[in-house]
Amino acid sequence: MLLFLWIETSNEYFNFDWVTFLGTGYWFFWSIFILSLAGILTAYSSLLLLLGFLLLWERIELYLHLCHKILILLVILLCVILMFIIYKFWKERWLVAGLSLQIFAPYVHLVSITVMVILFWPVAFYVARLERKVRMRRYRMTHSEKKRLKKCNVITRLRGLQVAVGLPFLLILLSLYLMPLGIYSPCIQEKENLGPKPTIFGHRGAPMLGPENTMMSFEKAVEHGAHGLETDIHLSYDHVPFLMHDFDLKRTTNIGEVQPESAFENPAFFNWDFLSTPNAGKWFVKPELRPFYNMKPLSEADKERARNQSIPTLADLLTLAEKERKFVIFDLHCPPPKHPLRHTFQHLVCLSQQYVRSVAPGFQHVGRLVSVETLAKNNISIINVDYKKLFPNGLRDYKAANIHINVYTVNEPWLFSLAWCSRINSVTTDNTGLLSQLDHPHFFMTPKFYVFMWLLADIISVLFIVAIFCFHWWRETEKEKLFETSSTRTDLHIAMKPPARVVESPWTLAALYPALPKSGKEHQGHFNFAAPSKKLLPIKNAVTPLKPGKHEIQPPMPTTVFELTQAPTRQATSEATFQTTLPTLKVDKPTMPSIEVPYP
């Protein structure tokens, strides 16, 4: 926001630098410094934002370094402070930004749609990915999971994420599509309704081509086709009107070299004999003191001419204007306190209209931004107003009353185009050389062309958005089909594989199990089986001899006694292995070795 505001108010850079000069006493392009600072901070923050987005895209955890944390906090703090200062002490800049939207709104609309199309790529990717997750979960879901989802439905949450991401995007996009219905731009009109080009008044002459308020500056304005000349008038101590804008001589003369102790004195306290001696042009050729950052380089002849300039009088300017048949508009500054003309000035102002009309019938009194009724009462048909105050208040009443409108100070081509499309009669400008060359307003278009451009941009953006969505949807669908195919093959492979045949070896403990006493089966844990003291019954009828199948025939193994090896530790016990062979049994005299079975 700060960068946008500062770019759009480039027409006010000189005034900002001049105000800071009054406060600091040092001339510097503070406006360009703030513009560069805002650009660097915006680029830095945007780069961090882009890197964070890419890391999240790759599912990498974000970790912001402490230096970046401090810098981000400083950026936020600085922007808040500057925005507060502008809002508190320079509210007019907000009006300038609003005026710029009247010119740039159609192009901002097109750029916004382009940005939304670019942003739709990650949005469509995310929505399509969530849809694939929903389908995969449904595919894997079992009957028990379906019951559990009634209490905690994960699929509903995924659907909610889709709505949370996609719905705001669609609403913003829809509002952008309908934005032209609410756009008003004076430069969107039929060609036959376009008014004539505003005439140009040179503000203090042509201060980009020569030192301001010098005869060189006024002559340069005349050379570049200025319709009139604008200046500021002070009254010297000996009643001579001279041309000067500032309330001291420090910035536009070499008073610091001639008489340093008087550098900050009001020039009205000096006699004309002294005021005619300081040089009023050497400062202009110094690079560090040039008033405008976008000035064209001066030729050597113009540099030499500028070095020989002095403070002119009002009579010198009127002589030039009479010779070149130019209009002159000026501001008469009130003499400071303790000036001999301080009290008579008030009387002069009150009687100026009648006095001027009686002495010079051709002169006209120029009014300010007052009501049409007040202008008509004072018989004023010309107003000279600040453009920042005129446009917000409207022009219809003044145009209907046939009031000639002159606005100041217009330096940027877009602002001059706005005045042209609004049928402003004349403008006061520092940039006489550039504005005099314009033969058509910038950003001008007919309503039919704008409607065509609007519909074409909307249709193309819709086609791109549909194509991007279909591409992501198709890609996620292919991933889903690949997953289902691989899952089906795995299930089919498991189903076709014959179950492992469990063949119980006849030479196991199960063969002896029926011969154990019933009481021994009920014991758990570590227990011992010993041969009973009583004579056991023969077990040849109790144990059915097991015969191995043909496919289980194995080489004969040596006959040994059944043993159970127990490890001394618990871990070894759990990993104990049975070493079993066919026990030696005598049918007539059955014997049972002592066995210790560990409880697993």
Automatic annotation (TrEMBL):
The lineage of its organism: Eukaryota, Metazoa, Chordata, Craniata, Vertebrata. It is a multi-pass membrane protein. Gene3D superfamilies: Phosphatidylinositol (PI) phosphodiesterase. This is Glycerophosphodiester phosphodiesterase domain containing 4. Pfam families: GDPD. The keyword Transmembrane helix applies. InterPro entries: GP_PDE_dom, PLC-like_Pdiesterase_TIM-brl. One of its GO terms (biological process) is lipid metabolic process. The keyword RNA-binding does not apply. It comes from the Eukaryota. PANTHER family: GLYCEROPHOSPHODIESTER PHOSPHODIESTERASE DOMAIN-CONTAINING PROTEIN 4, GLYCEROPHOSPHORYL DIESTER PHOSPHODIESTERASE. Its main location: membrane. Belongs to the glycerophosphoryl diester phosphodiesterase family. Residues 198-439 form the GP-PDE domain. GO terms for cellular component: membrane. The chain crosses the membrane at residues 27-57, 69-87, 107-128, 158-179, 449-474.
